[in-house]
Fold:
Amino acid sequence: MEHHGDETNYVGESDMSVNEATNGQLSSQEHTLLEIIAVVWNGFGSLPKQYDNDITDLRHHIDAINNIILSRSASRANPDIVRNI
Structure:
C-alpha cells in the first residue's frame, strides 16, 4: 500500500464503504487477509514437526500480522487516539 503524505487514504482501500471507514469495521480486504492467516496457521499445524520452536515462532509472527491488520480498524474508529504513521 502506498501512503500519500499526511492523508489517511491508502491505495487499495477502495473496497471499504463510508460506513466501515467511520465505525471502525474491517474492510473486506482486511477480513480476507485475516482468513488467509487462519489458513496458514491451520495448514502449518498439519505439517510434521521439524524444529522445537516452529509453533511458537509461527504464533509470534501471526500475532504480529494480526495486530497490524486489526490496528487499522482501531485507527479508523479512533483517529484521535490511534495514530496513523
